[in-house]
Amino acid sequence: MAELWFYHLEKTELEKALPPLLDKCLQRGWRAIVRGGQKERLEALDDLLWTWRDDSFVPHGVDDRNAAKQPVLLTEKDGNPNGAKALFLIDGAPPGDIAAFERACLLFDGRDEAALEKARAHWKQAKEAGVDASYWRENARGAWEKQA
Q1: Which residues of the chain have pLDDT under 50?
Q2: Rounded to an integer, what is the distance from CA 138 to the centroid of its chain?
Q3: In the chain, what are the domain boundaries?
Q4: What CATH number does the domain located at 3-146 have?
Q5: Reading across the β-sheet that carries 144-146, which strands appear in turn?
Q6: pTM summary value
């Protein structure tokens, strides 16, 4: 059964938090999908992932016909066309069926009350469904710490 990890962004913006998480997936040999609900945000992430560090980039594609070949796929669609082990949900994208993944990560902005409420609702649904869910929060140094 897939794990569902909740990442509570408090200090760091999504654009700074997501690339290192994707990079860790790639280092593990995992493919990933970033699912969002806003085409403009995915286009901005597309640009960012090519230049997120001076010495590195995250190889990826955006909803293209070569989706199956992409190490990281940015999309608004359901499914797992690139055989990803990790699913990253941003901008309120609902988890839906996560059975095709080893891990799903729901990143939400804790400074946005609506995003916070959605995350709480998803947490409650996951726990009621018996999903192995964990909650991660940034510490004072900006590192992730498991809280629950």
Answers
A1: none
A2: 15
A3: 3-146
A4: 3.40.50.10110
A5: 61-62, 72-75, 32-35, 86-89, 103-109, 3-9, 132-138, 144-146
A6: 0.94
